[in-house]
């Protein structure tokens, strides 16, 4: 089996699952309990937090554990809206965000917030000038993703951060779910980033756990009110096994990150260079520095994305139509629509997404199968 | 960037005339202790500068530690490069790239002590400058207030390239200002007061009152961990654990409620004064801030201070709570301090302690307990541990944990 759908989810690392199971079995005390058993859990929780903070070069009290990327996005956006409502009601985001962001915005619009959805260029990127032009006196939040999950374009989050140094009251949220472990640390943790969302299962940790970076001193209201965990900003008994497993997964991910990223870029570029020679292939991702090293989105003209996915699957190769969230709803990719790709091409789009365990051999196998399928599809096309 | 050496410039001590030697020696010792778990470092405290040779140790980590050591004015990480102009060019370029953001300007500042080097100062400047201009789009040279300065020192034993000047903590090396005891509870204030005392070069011995079972093992571990946090300013700290259960129980039993706290504080100060004398310390530091709680009014201080004529130093006297918290956050003790364990000060707090205790009444109340016997038994059972930078107390399970993480 060749798994090329790592942007949907990644295979849990075995040693990470092992950690999960050991903590579940042995360290199951509630970190809030006063007795030694709770104390032990508390220590492990804090050590996990410290490890994550150290890897990311931030303060431990800037890391808040969540239930994943969707929760993080919801929290950052709604929590900021609640905390900063009295200062304004205008929010800026892009038209290619993950549904967790877009649909949170839609909910806020119903409550009277005004949302600007920035357009993107042919590469799926927003422009800093557009951001600048959209800022108003009432702007309280800007939410932009680091890496687009469908085509892999890297947004100018660092430059937006630079722009925002002139607007210190605007909260800046970055959805970095697809950006972690891809050599983008410095642009994601730019000097102006206030809130950053991460999800564990995108880097070989279990589902249902993630974390949020919140810069010291930045205000955000909790989404989950309750017993006061996570400094009263995210109540709910801590999911300790998953948190510890995630801390481990992050360490494994970031060991030799540079080499791992180079390897993924090499594989992606190899496939890119091969398939882009074919007449009926349109590539939406590029092989340059404006795109993440692990995502390649392309279409074979005239063949539905779903058909391409199943055709590859019959050879044991797993890819996806653009994003996993929309693939079962038969929706055309919202990113491609925003990039003004004609609908007939957008419906043919599929996505390859890599992780550090994919190999060049797998890529070579992929292009062999690609040749076979391309010939087959030619017949349909004719 | 991974550097090969760090040049440390001395702070205030440059002004201290004939004591200079002692100061440098002490700082060298402190730096060695603070960096004790980097095995390959070579530390050389010279008359003009302190020189750290990294021998492959992670420079970022060493830099982080040096930032905290009192007595350091500034320091510069440097790269030792062989005396070959191409090698120097390469490293200089890397250094600029490391800091460069669009629009920045730079300057090369060359010192050529090795008069046998084939290029003269001017030629070196030109060679390095053009290597940078040719390889970084849009960068400009600027002689007056450039954004990036590359300092190239051509010495007999190699070429040293440096660029960053990192601000140290200033202050005086811990130990040059004598030795005192510090009453460390585990709250927010006492670590901040310790920090301020150490900043003026005082070496502190921590005195912590321990009352099991009213206070937990964790509260003790927390106080030790706070002490560990403070070791990064000047190296190892002695931690004196003073048993206080019996004293607290007897006071609770015999002393009227309004004077519980005052008498308890007097006993703490008395014990600390005794330890101060026996350990040849010259004063007592506390984290008291005027008017913050019942025991910290002027009247209370007078009634408590009555037990000793030792100097009692209170660096926080005039600071607001918010100012104290800000310092605690900066020195990274705040998060630890607010961990919710009962400490010796809170367990027996009466609902309404006297804020203006009467000195004579206080003395009378104290006569109700056996001061001498209680003191003797407590002092006989003091436990002393030497706490080093990097030691872990709160995470006793660290080995189990590190396997999981």
Structural notes for this entry:
The complex is a heterodimer of chains A (382) and B (405). Chain A is α/β, with parallel strands linked by helices and 382 residues long. Chain A folds into two domains: 2-9 and 257-381, Aspartate Aminotransferase, domain 1, CATH 3.90.1150.10; 14-254, Type I PLP-dependent aspartate aminotransferase-like (Major domain) (Aspartate Aminotransferase, domain 2, 3-Layer(aba) Sandwich), CATH 3.40.640.10. Chain A has 15 helices and 13 strands. Chain A has helices at residues 14-26, 36-56, 69-84, 99-110, 128-134, 157-164, 185-188, 229-232, 240-254, 257-275, 305-313, 324-327, 334-338, 343-346, 360-381; strands at residues 2-3, 63-66, 90-94, 114-118, 139-145, 171-175, 195-199, 210-214, 281-283, 295-300, 317-318, 320-321, 349-353. In chain A, the strands form three sheets. A seven-stranded mixed sheet of chain A has the order 2-8-7-6-5-3-4, sandwiched between helices. A four-stranded antiparallel sheet of chain A has the order 9-10-13-12. In chain A, strand 3, helix 4 (99-110) and strand 4 (114-118) form a beta-alpha-beta unit. The longest helix of chain A has 22 residues, at 360-381. Chain B is α/β, with parallel strands linked by helices and 405 residues long. In chain B, helix 8 packs across helix 9, helix 8 (260-278) crosses helix 14 (371-380) and helix 9 (298-305) crosses helix 13. The A-B interface holds A 19, 22-23, 39-40, 43-44, 47-48, 51, 60-61, 216, 244, 247-248, 251 and B 218, 329, 335, 394-398, 401, 404-405.
């Amino acid at each position: 089996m060749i798994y090329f759908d790592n942007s949907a989810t990644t295979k849990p690392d075995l040693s990470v699952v092992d950690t999960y199971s050991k903590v579940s079995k042995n360290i199951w005390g509630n970190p809030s309990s006063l007795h030694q058993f709770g104390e032990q859990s508390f220590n492990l929780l804090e050590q996990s937090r410290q490890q994550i903070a150290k890897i990311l070069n931030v303060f431990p009290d800037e890391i808040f554990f969540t239930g994943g990327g969707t929760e993080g996005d919801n929290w950052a956006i709604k929590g900021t809206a609640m905390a900063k409502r009295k200062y304004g009601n205008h929010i800026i985001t892009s038209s290619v965000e993950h549904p967790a962001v877009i649909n949170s915005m839609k909910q806020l619009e119903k409550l009277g917030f005004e949302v600007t959805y920035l357009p993107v260029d042919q590469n799926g990127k927003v422009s800093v000038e557009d951001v600048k032009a959209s800022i108003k006196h009432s702007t309280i939040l800007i939410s932009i993703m680091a890496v687009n999950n469908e085509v892999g374009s890297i947004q100018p989050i660092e430059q937006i951060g630079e722009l925002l140094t002139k607007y210190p009251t605007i909260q800046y949220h970055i959805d970095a779910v697809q950006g972690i472990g891809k050599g983008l640390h410095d642009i994601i943790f730019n000097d102006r980033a206030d809130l950053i969302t991460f999800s564990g299962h995108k880097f070989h940790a279990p589902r249902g756990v993630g974390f949020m970076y919140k810069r010291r001193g930045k205000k955000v209201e909790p989404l989950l009110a309750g017993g006061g965990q996570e400094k009263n900003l995210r109540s709910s008994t801590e999911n300790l096994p998953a948190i510890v497993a995630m801390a481990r997964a992050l360490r494994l991910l970031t060991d030799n990150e540079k080499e791992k990223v180079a390897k993924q870029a090499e594989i992606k570029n190899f496939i890119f260079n091969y398939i882009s020679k074919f007449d009926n292939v349109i590539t939406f991702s590029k092989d340059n520095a404006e795109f993440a090293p692990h995502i390649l989105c392309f279409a074979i003209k005239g063949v539905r994305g779903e058909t391409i996915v199943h055709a590859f699957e019959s050879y044991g190769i797993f890819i996806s139509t653009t994003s996993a969230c929309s693939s079962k709803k038969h929706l055309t990719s919202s990113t491609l629509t925003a990039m003004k790709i004609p609908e007939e091409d957008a419906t043919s789009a599929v996505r390859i997404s890599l992780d550090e365990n994919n190999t060049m051999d797998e890529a070579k196998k992929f292009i062999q199968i690609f040749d076979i399928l391309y010939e087959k599809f030619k017949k349909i096309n004719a | 960037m991974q550097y090969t050496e760090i040049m440390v410039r001395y702070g205030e001590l440059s002004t201290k005339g004939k004591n200079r030697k002692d100061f440098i020696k002490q700082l060298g010792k402190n730096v060695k202790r603070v960096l004790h778990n980097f095995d390959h470092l070579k530390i050389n405290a010279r008359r003009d500068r302190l020189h750290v040779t990294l021998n492959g140790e992670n420079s970022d980590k060493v830099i982080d530690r040096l930032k905290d050591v009192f007595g350091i004015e500034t320091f510069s990480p440097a790269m030792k490069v062989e005396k070959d102009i191409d090698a120097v060019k390469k490293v200089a370029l890397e250094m600029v790239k490391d800091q460069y953001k669009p629009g920045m300007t730079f300057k090369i500042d060359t010192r050529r002590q090795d008069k046998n080097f084939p290029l003269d100062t001017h030629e070196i400047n030109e060679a390095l400058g053009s290597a940078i201009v040719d390889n970084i789009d849009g960068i400009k040279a600027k002689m007056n207030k450039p954004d990036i300065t590359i300092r190239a020192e051509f010495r007999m034993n190699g070429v040293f390239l440096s660029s960053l000047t990192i601000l140290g903590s200033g202050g005086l090396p811990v130990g040059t200002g004598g030795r005192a005891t510090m009453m460390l509870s585990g709250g927010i204030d006492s670590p901040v007061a310790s920090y301020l005392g150490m900043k003026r070069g005082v070496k502190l011995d921590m005195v912590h009152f321990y009352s099991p079972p009213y206070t937990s093992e964790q509260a003790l571990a927390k106080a030790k961990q706070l002490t560990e946090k403070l070791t990064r300013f000047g190296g190892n700290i002695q931690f004196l654990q003073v048993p206080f259960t019996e004293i607290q129980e007897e006071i609770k039993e015999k002393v009227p409620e309004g004077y519980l706290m005052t008498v308890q504080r007097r006993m703490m100060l008395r014990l600390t004064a005794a330890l101060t004398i026996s350990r040849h310390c010259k004063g007592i530091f506390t984290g008291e801030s005027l008017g913050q709680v019942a025991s910290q009014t002027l009247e209370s201080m007078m009634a408590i201070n009555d037990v000793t004529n030792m100097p009692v130093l209170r660096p926080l006297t005039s600071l607001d709570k918010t100012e104290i918290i800000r310092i605690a956050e900066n020195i990274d003790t705040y998060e630890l301090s607010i961990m919710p364990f009962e400490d010796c000060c809170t367990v027996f707090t009466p609902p309404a302690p006297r804020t203006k205790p009467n000195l004579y009444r206080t003395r009378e109340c104290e006569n109700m307990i056996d001061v001498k016997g209680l003191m003797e038994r407590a002092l006989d059972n003091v436990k002393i541990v030497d706490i080093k930078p990097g030691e872990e107390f709160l995470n006793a399970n660290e080995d189990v944990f590190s396997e999981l993480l």
